[in-house]
Amino acid sequence: MNQPQSNILLSLVQGDAGRGWASGRQGWKQMNDNACEWEGIECNQYNEVISILITQTAFSGTLPAVLGTLTSLRELRMGKNKMHGTIPPSIAALPNLVNVNLAENRITGTLHPFRSIKLRTLDLGSNDLHGSIPASFLAADSSFQYLSMTKNRLSSTIPESLSNLISIDTLNLSDNNLHGTIPRSLGKLALLKHLHLNNNFFVGQIPPTLATSHPINGKVGDLLEKIYLQDNQLSGKVPIQLADLSNLKELVIHENKLTGQVPNDICSETINSYFFQGNFPPLLERNYCDAIACPVDTVASDGSYPCIHCDNRHYNPYIGQTRECNIYTNQREILRKMYVSTTIHGKWDGQNNWGDDEVFLCDLSGVTCDSNFYVTEINLSNRGLKGTIPGELGFLQYLEKIDVSDNQLTGFLPSDLQWAPIQNLDISGNKIRGIIPPKLCLTGINGNGYNGDYNCGHIACPEGTYSPSGRKDLKQKHDCLPCPHNNPEVLGYKACRELGVASGVFGAIVAIVTLSVAITGFVVIRMKRKKNYFKHVHVANELEMQTPINRENWPQEGEIKPSAGAIQEFHSPARQSMRNNPHLYSSTDRYQPIARSEKNENNRSSLAHLKGESTDGVSNRLRTDLSVSASVKTSKSYNSHCSNESPSDVWLDVPKI
């Protein structure tokens, strides 16, 4: 049964904070059944709620899934509040949503596809969303105009499906953990004006297709006005095609791995003009390319004008670098950077003298030098390294081999390694994410390029694939094969988990639970068997041993007294067998041993068959049990015809085991 709209909306009022929020708003406190009269609520002519507009109202609470039953809802604007929790799939699936703004809250969880084909704008920026952007994230292809998911923790590549948003004018995915390359297909977005991809981990080149011209209103041109790509790992040169963007006002590309120089055709007084505000320097002395990126071997506070040259101890091969020239030309400084970057979360395993400045460079564990004391190899396989691979290793001019396999390294593979003459590189068995920088894929590392086969898989298997060596190896005939099951998204994977096999913390939990269940089951079975055994012994005692004896008949000093071991033997399995086979005993005293000469061989064979033992073994067992029994009880110990009990009479209490 459908709930009244007022009840659905009141699900937003949660706890004391919610009641305090509602108390100052019309309709929410009085609980008026006509929700269309509430503050921040709008309805259509059918009195169906179509808008929830409570932006910047100090609202505190979660988004209840029941809001997904307001199927006529078009506007959901709850930005700049204190909202927490996740975005329920039922809300993302609302069929008539047009505008959604949940920015600047504390929303967590992962993204769900938004199913409304009418959706125009979606702002989820400044939250705590994580995970990947779904491949089919938005159903509204032709009508969608604005997407912002800035300042979250999204960690996937950009799905190709976003290039189908042909009417979008703003795409803001900045300040996340996105990786991979910038899709060339973004050049299809003919109406795109603002592109914000800064502060991520993108590699590869700036796509020249961003400057693709499109026929718009009968004219040929491109509408891009702002491009923000700073603070990534982009490499290569700035494409000259960007000079064709006649409307371009801001191009920010500092703190990447870009080389060469900014093409003069792009440099203009209209691009990044704010750098020259205040008539400084004089008009004739201005270098408009410096306003886009400082040249090689210089730095600036924000990567562009004014630019300062590096000193002799440092080198900077990239344009648009900030703060300071932090790339050392000294081998010792580079290796010190390696040590610091891989000991952030703990020391290495095994011999480690890297922290001792008194040790000669070439005597550091895992380091090999040539005759001129240039570092040629670094072998730190299976040493417990934790941290990231520093890009500075690429500036060891004679480095030919790096083996950091089977450690716990994270982060991304730096494109700086392109500068070193590396022939062998092994990063397998770590937790390095992303993709292989395209520049590295054009080198001869690990035989890459043999017979014209340039393949990034020669360096490391891509995410979701594996090989025994963690890479494509022609000599060992290893190829990178897809993992059939859900496996970590890391480079250089060596083995896929089998279906149903857990790992990590979850695997440990499963193992502990399984072990606990097994132990519990074992204990229960043992206790049940023991209980049955005690019950059997108790019945035997009642039948055979609850006969009163007089204290006077207890063996006196000098006579043989029963011991605990003798009593235990009395209840041995063989003894129980004799109780169940009375024909093995004499007719006059069943507790007296039968003479060996009187034993019946047929009975011996029968008992041996019953217990699964040899007849000689059974004879020895019976001889021992009966001898012990004789030492415990004599013909005077029990009187089956005794009918009178004196106060001194007691019951023989045989301890149970």
User: Stretches where pLDDT falls below 50 for ≥5 residues?
Assistant: 499-508, 543-657
Mean pLDDT: 79
Our count of helices gives 9
- Taking Cα atoms only, what radius of gyration do you get, to the nearest Å? 42 Å
Which structural category fits the helices and strands? alpha/beta
Number of strands: 33
Tell me roughly what share of residues is in helical segments.
10-25%
Largest sheet: 10 strands, mixed
- Measured by DSSP, the beta-strand proportion falls in 5-15%
Tertiary shape: globular
What do you see in this structure?
It is a single chain. This protein is of the alpha/beta class and 657 residues long. The protein has nine helices and 33 strands. The strands form ten sheets. The chain has a ten-stranded mixed beta sheet, with no helix packed on it.
List the helices and strands and how they pair.
Blueprint: H1 5-10, H2 15-23, E1 41-43, E2 49-53, E3 60-61, E4 75-77, E5 82-85, H3 89-92, E6 99-101, E7 106-107, E8 121-123, E9 130-131, E10 146-148, E11 153-154, E12 170-172, E13 179-181, E14 194-196, E15 201-204, E16 214-216, E17 219-221, E18 226-228, E19 233-236, E20 250-252, E21 257-258, E22 298-299, E23 308-309, H4 331-341, E24 367-369, E25 375-379, E26 386-387, E27 401-403, E28 408-409, E29 424-426, E30 465-466, E31 481-482, H5 504-544, E32 548-550, H6 564-570, H7 573-579, H8 601-611, H9 615-632, E33 649-651
Parallel strand pairs: 2-4, 3-5, 4-6, 5-7, 6-8, 8-10, 9-11, 10-12, 12-14, 13-15, 14-18, 15-19, 18-20, 19-21, 25-27, 26-28, 27-29
Antiparallel strand pairs: 1-2, 16-17, 22-23, 24-25, 30-31, 32-33
Helix pairs in contact: 6-9, 8-9
